[in-house]
Amino acid sequence: MKPMIKLQMLNLSGLLAFGLVVSCATVPVAITEAPELTYKKQAYVIGVGDQLRIDVWRNVDLTREVSVRPDGFITMPLMGDVKAEGLTPERLAAVVGQELKGVIKTPEVAVTVSNPVSVAYQFRVRALGQVNQPISMAFSEGLTVMDLILAAGGVGPFGAANRTVLNRLTRAGYVEYLVQLNDILLKGQISTNYLLQPGDILTIPEKSFWRGEF
User: Fold this and answer.
1) Using CA of residue 145, residue 148, residue 153, residue 156, what is the dihedral sign?
2) Are residues 100 and 135 located together in one domain of the fold?
3) Sign of CA pseudo-dihedral 47, 48, 51, 53
4) What distance lies between CA 189 and its chain's CA centroid?
5) 130 in the same domain as 110
6) Strands across the sheet containing 51-56
7) Same domain (yes/no): 126, 210
8) Of residues 203 and 9, which shows the higher confidence score?
9) C-alpha span between 146 and 56 (Å, rounded)
10) Fewest CB within 10 angstroms: 17, 90, 162, 164, which?
11) DSSP-derived 3-state class of residue 63
12) pLDDT by residue (tens digit) across 41-85?
């Protein structure tokens, strides 16, 4: 082999090795410990766009379906505008009942959120990257990593399942947790089949030639 060709090949090998080292050094490493659960179930708070049913016992004319307007108010007969945004259904029922005491001796009011529009995107989980169908779905208690991936149609053919990352907002900010999805789905090893919480994002990266994943 000619010296010049040999030198060029050595330079190329060095560049490839350097690039591999740099790429490995710059890729953030996901945490392997179990993620912190920060979600706590709380009383529902009414928001803009929510559909409400106001029931006034024995007063059919006052019972109605209303929507929370962009200004946060609803309109009720005999009362006019009532602030609903930021209140729980129980608190709004108490406010309406108090206002109706001027016309009804002992008003009994119940408020039901028939369509919680305001939290439609706040209480969601998402699966992105190398899944067969990227998905954004409503959160429900007990939902796990495996449930979300199955809803997304499974891992795509180019997905590096054992390098899946769960991105979660914690008290320290957004944190990445390693999920060994291949072990969950194919080996039944469920140690990283974590419970999800609202706002979680599961990302499956693409297989890497340098990692020997193809």
Assistant:
1) negative
2) no
3) positive
4) 24
5) no
6) 64-67, 51-56, 109-115
7) yes
8) 203
9) 44
10) 17
11) coil
12) 888 999 999 999 999 998 888 899 999 999 999 999 888 999 999
Spatial separation of the C-alpha atoms in residues 55 and 103, rounded to whole Å: 16
> Could you report the per-residue pLDDT of 84-93, keeping only the tens digit for each?
999 999 999 9
106 & 136 share domain: no
Taking the C-alpha atoms of 126, 132, 133 and 135 in order, what is their torsion angle to the nearest 10 degrees?
-10
Interacting residues of 135 by C-beta distance below 8 A, sequence separation 6+: 126, 127, 148, 151, 152
Tell the residue number behind the tokens 């710059």, with chain if given: 26
In a domain, 15, yes or no: no
CA 123 to chain centre: 6
**Helices and strands (H, E) in the chain, number of each type:** 4, 10
Q: What does the pLDDT read at residue 23?
A: 42
pLDDT value of position 127: 98
CATH number of the domain at 204, please: 3.10.560.10
Tell me the pTM. 0.68
Q: How many domains does the chain have?
A: 2
